[in-house]
Amino acid sequence: MITLSTIIYFAWFLSEILLQRILRGKATDDKKQQDKGSLAVMWIVIIVFINIASIVAAKTNYPIVPGPLMNRIGLSVILLGMILRFVAIMQLGRLFTVNVTIRKDHHIKKTGLYSILRHPSYTGSLLSFLGFGLSVNNWLGLVIAFVPVFVVFVYRMNIEEKVLTAQFGEEYTTYMKHTSRLIPWIY
């Protein structure tokens, strides 16, 4: 029997696979990819820890809230994260790539979500991982699903911000002073 959880998890995973396939920077048009292997590291961490979190949640009993409510809240947070991620990608347009690359005629996006957050796409993605952790309704599963992924995203943001600072200098450092990384006005 296919459940709502299965459908949402599948849609989330499929959307990320499609982004990986469709939105890669092309080496012919862009400056050298400066990823430093962070995309591969991200995928390894995500796959490993989502699977561990699923197993731990199935084999242990540390409910966040008894009953099905937390699963529904978690699924809603996944969907909210997906929507935020897609809006951020649409607002960045052709400048968005899944690998760290400076595109031809690249500029710093400072409007829309990017007027508040430097990495709204990552905010959306991290919301989805938080939602997944909540949806398994297990404190230990939540920590396992979210914390390692958050750490690897911070690693990736550090790489991106160094590349953007090297490319745009003071313009980017000024932009960093006026925006938050992931959470508006907090972080």
TrEMBL record:
- Subcellular locations according to the entry: Endomembrane system
As for membrane topology, the entry says:
Multi-pass membrane protein
Which is an annotated GO molecular function term of this record? methyltransferase activity
Print the keywords alphabetically. Answer: Membrane, Methyltransferase, Transferase, Transmembrane, Transmembrane helix
Q: Name one GO cellular component term.
A: endomembrane system
Q: Which InterPro entries match?
A: Metal_cation-efflux_comp (IPR052527), Phopholipid_MeTrfase (IPR007318)
- What GO terms describe the biological role, i.e. biological process, of this protein? methylation
A Pfam match is: PEMT
* Chief location category: membrane
Any stretches that span the bilayer, and where are they? 6-23, 39-58, 73-92, 138-155
> Does the keyword field hold Transmembrane?
yes
Q: What protein does this entry describe?
A: Protein-S-isoprenylcysteine O-methyltransferase Ste14
The species this protein belongs to is Chitinophaga arvensicola
